[in-house]
Every structure is written in structure tokens, then in C-alpha cells.
Amino acid sequence: MLNSCKNKSKEQSRIMPDIEPVEYVSFGKEMIADDAITATSMAAHYKNMNPGDSIHSKMIAKVNSVCQAKGCWMILNLENGNEVMVKFKDYGFFVPKDIAGKEVIVNGKAYIKEVSIEELRHYAEDAGKSAEKIAAITKPKRTYSFEADGVLLKQ
User: Fold this and answer.
1) What's the whole-model pTM score?
2) DSSP secondary structure string, 95-145?
3) Where are the domains of the chain?
4) N or C: which terminus of the chain has fewer CB atoms within 10 Å of its end residue's CB?
């Protein structure tokens, strides 16, 4: 009986992996990575919101695309085909234009926005879309939006 207890404790000590710290580059307001919710959790919050509603949040998500003119906005993946448009508070900072596919943590205000045709076309132009794709935008769109006061880019 005592032998079986000894073997168990040896086995437990072997399965403790070494955890390497995650490094981030910060843009905008200084913040820490703790307490960020997942993109999937944020998508659930957005589904229960109406235009005009807002909540303060910190979320972690993957970047789908970035403004190729200045890095003044980005679109994050919320999973299951949902995305969120992120702009930066007071146009106060930008992110690198080559971060598509990378993971970020954004801190700020999540809200629902009705985006005009004109604004949608402007974003498509900034993203480098073709003239045909830009012209195909003919309806306003209800979008998930986020005004970030800080961004952490995972290295």
C-alpha cells in the first residue's frame, strides 16, 4: 500500500511543464494582460447588445486585418464568422500594418454600431479592396465595434 503512494508522487512531479512567460508590445494606454476574456465570450456579449449599448471590456483575439494606410483600425476574429471593428481612442495611436494573424489584447469600450455605406466603402478602400468590391457595398451594416484605449500585441 505504501509503495503505490510513493509511485504516485513521483509521477506527479514529472508532469509539471515549464511555462514560458508571454511577451507583449504595448500601444496606447499601459495595461496588463490579466483578466482578458476570450473572443468567443465577447461574441456572446455582443449578441445581447443593441445599437447604443456599450460595455467596458478587455478581450483577447486574433487580428484578421489592419488598415493598410496607417494602421488606424483593425478587425478582430470573434470566431464562428463574427468579427469586431476596432478603432483607437481619440485617434491617439496606431498599430503595425503587418499584424494580421497575430494575437492581441484590446482594452476599452465594446458597442454596437450601424455603419453607413460611405464608411464601409472607406474601410474597404483602406484595406486595399478592388474597385468592384467597393462598388458592391450597397447597404449599411450593423457591426460589432470596439474603441480601444490600449492594445497589447503578442510577440
Assistant:
1) 0.74
2) --TT-TT-EEEEEEEEEEEEE-HHHHHHHHHHTT--HHHHHT--S-EEEEE
3) 19-154
4) N
Query: Which set of grid coordinates corresponds to residue 82?
Result: 463574427
DSSP string, 45-69: HHHT--TT-EEEEEEEEEEEEE-TT
Count of Cβ atoms closer than 10 Å to residue 58 Cβ: 20
- The residues facing 88 across adjacent strands are 148
- Please give the Cα distance from 124 to 127 (Å, whole number): 5
Return all residues near 27 (Cβ < 8 A) that are at least 6 apart: 88, 93, 94, 95, 150, 151, 152, 153
d(CA 14, CA 8): 10
Q: Which fold has domain 19-154?
A: OB fold (Dihydrolipoamide Acetyltransferase, E2P) (2.40.50)
Burial 18-55 (b: 16+ CB within 10 A, else e): eeeeeebeebbeebeeeebeebeebbebbeeeeeeeee
Query: How far is residue 50's CA from residue 26's CA, in Å, rounded to a whole number?
Result: 31
**Residue 89 half-sphere exposure toward CB, CA atoms < 13 A:** 13
